[in-house]
Amino acid sequence: MNFEQVTALKKLLSSSKRIAIVPHKNPDGDAIGSTLALSHYLSKKGHETQVLAPNDFPKFLKWMPGATEILNFERHNTEVKKFIENADLIFTLDFNDFGRVGQMAECLENASAQFIMVDHHQQPSDYAVITYSDVTISSTCEMVYTLIDAMGDRDFIDSDIANCLYTGIMTDTGSFKFKATTSKTHRIVAELMDKGADNTAIHEKVYDTNSPSRLHLLGCALKNMVILEEFNTAYITLTQEELDRYDYEKGDTEGFVNYGLTLNNIRFAVIFIENKDEGIFKISFRSVGDFSVNEFARNHFEGGGHTNAAGGKSEKSLQETIDYFISLLPNYKKELTA
Q1: In this predicted model, what pLDDT tens digit does every residue of 271-311 receive, in sequence order?
Q2: How many domains does the chain have?
Q3: Dist. CA 108–CA 327, nearest whole Å
Q4: Strands 18-22 vs 48-53: parallel, antiparallel or unpaired
Q5: Are 98 and 105 in contact (CB under 8 A)?
Q6: CA-CA distance, 179 to 295, in Å (whole number)?
Q7: By CB atoms within 10 Å of each CB, which of 51, 77, 110, 162 scores lowest?
Q8: Would you say residue 28 has pLDDT above 90?
Q9: CA distances in angstroms from 11 to 37, 153, 298, listed in the order given
Q10: Domain limits at 265?
């Protein structure tokens, strides 16, 4: 954060406030970790805080300190709307456009509160009085740590905050292997461990709590994988029927798309997952090197994200979506095979 942002934030937080903290729809480890950590921090500063999620989040994140207090817009609609209506400030974390909160968007658009954005995705919208946006930082959790540090409040970081921040950094860096992981990231993680983050327990709770049905679903996904050697690309499909067959629960497909990138010479990996209730195929894109899946998703699938990790959607049938996707690849062959 720069000096002007820190000064402005200190002024906004100089007296007790009612603060809503909002992650994106289908929140992941970074979204839940950053919102809970910020909530714990601001509560310790004397503010009334509430994390308001657009919908539910995976079971493997529900152990996190404060997770049981999160209000879910789909389940606690009235309470969420009331809190937003009466909020003094609204922090939006790990997203930068109201289009990323689904049906909650209208509530945010009509809110009278001032907004503070903390996010590391590309091309932020202009809705906040303070926009802390940095696409070079590994995760929103790393940004929340930096915010707390810039406010001069590192001593406020306790084991609850440390565990939340560690979880988000770990998950959004692919256990510290992605390019955005820097020496500063590791120094922050080391301090979080000193503050009480239990790295072994966090890894176990996030990665080692699979159900048999999830592993069977993974087997189905890998069986469905198609490799397009000409374009150094691999894609996976999962239909609603397949999800239902293996008792899909929210979060079960987390990380499936990355298996494509474990193949030799594959630079572009995609997964298409049907959501019959919404009438769409949700798409996750991953890449290695300089191929920008953010631009690919924005240009062709109403999405976006980071250079090497992005999302999108399609309202076409599975076959139409796949055919369209494959038809685009010749335009990117030079980038994918360089």
Answers
A1: 999 999 999 999 999 999 999 999 999 999 999 988 999 99
A2: 2
A3: 38
A4: parallel
A5: yes
A6: 18
A7: 110
A8: yes
A9: 21, 15, 36
A10: 213-337
